[in-house]
Structure formats: C-alpha cells, structure tokens
Amino acid sequence: MTKTQHTTRKRAIPATPPNKSARRPKQAPLQSPHHPARAIPAGRATKSATPETVGAAVAPKSRASKKAAITALLQREDGATITELVAATGWLGHSVRAALTGLRQDGHEIVRSTTANGATQYRIVAAA
Predict the structure, then answer these.
(1) What is the 3-state secondary structure (H, E, C) of 68-127?
(2) Rounded distance between C-alpha atoms, residue 124 and residue 74, angstroms
(3) Per residue in 28-61, pLDDT tens?
(4) What is the pLDDT of residue 25?
(5) To 10 degrees, what angle do helices 66-74 and 82-89 make?
(6) Buried b (16+ CB within 10 A) or exposed e, 42-52
(7) Strand arrangement of the beta sheet that strand 109-114 belongs to
(8) 3-state DSSP assignment of residue 32
(9) In sequence order, what are the residues at sequence separation of 6 or more whose Cβ sits closer than 8 angstroms to the Cβ of residue 70?
(10) Residue 26's pLDDT is what?
(11) Which residues contact 123 (CB under 8 A, 6 or more apart)?
(12) Ramachandran angles phi, psi of 115, nearest 5°
C-alpha cells in the first residue's frame, strides 16, 4: 500500500464521556419551593423561625482582621519585628512589609528602629 492509497480511519467518538457513569446522581434539595410536601430526611435537625434566630441569621459574625492584628502589635510600646508579624498573620515577610506600606498610605506614621540584637522593630507613633 502506498502513501497515496493509505487512508486514516477515524475513531467513533462516544456520545458521553467515559467517566459520566461514575458520577453520583444529584440529590434533591431538602425542601423545594415547588414541592412543599417533600419531607426532610430523618436525623436532620431543623430550626424553627423565632425572632432570635431570624435576627441572628441576618447579622454576620464579626471577626478580627489580620490588618487589625498587625495594627495592635505595632501599637505596643516596643512595637513588633517582622518575625512577630509573620507569626501573628501567617503571611510571608514580603506580604507583611506590603501591609506596613498600606498602613503608611492609610496615614499611620510607622517608625523603624534597630534593637540591640540587630532585629528591626516597627512601631506606630501616630495615626492620621
């Protein structure tokens, strides 16, 4: 057979991907607005709508931000080192330095000093 006579066969593409059958079927929602009679599965606890729970569901829980943690550490009398700020936030050093730059841009005056052991400490002296 020569190259001009040779034809390539095309494989048939399956209609559905092979892993489609391995997927689990979607579960129906617990309560559908279209099917109000649908029961909630046993073992699932539900909350009744009382004024206390309705208000609690609307109000988001406040949590301390990492920027607030950095600010609190920098407002101490002796300030904080980069390693202390990294430990408090879980960020890398360059991210902590960027946060310090952001605080400077927000109007905080940050003073840098060196300790006896050679570590650099940062401290907020005044806020705008």
Answers:
(1) HHHHHHHCCCCCEEHHHHHHHHCCCHHHHHHHHHHHHHCCCEEEEEECCCCCEEEEEEEC
(2) 5
(3) 555 555 666 666 565 555 555 555 555 555 555 6
(4) 64
(5) 150
(6) eeeeeeeeeee
(7) 80-81, 120-126, 109-114
(8) strand
(9) 80, 85, 88, 89, 96, 99, 100, 103
(10) 65
(11) 74, 75, 76, 77, 78, 79, 80, 110, 111, 113
(12) -85, 175
Q: Where are the domains of the chain?
A: 66-126
88 Cβ contact partners less than 8 Å away, ≥ 6 residues apart? 66, 69, 70, 73, 80
Give the count of beta carbons closer than 10 Å to the beta carbon of residue 97.
14
Work out the average pLDDT over 82-87.
95
**Residue for token digits 């909350």?**
47
Instruction: Give me the pLDDT at residue 64, please.
Output: 78
Q: Is the dihedral of CA 99, 104, 110, 111 positive or negative?
A: positive
CATH fold group of domain 66-126: Arc Repressor Mutant, subunit A (1.10.10)
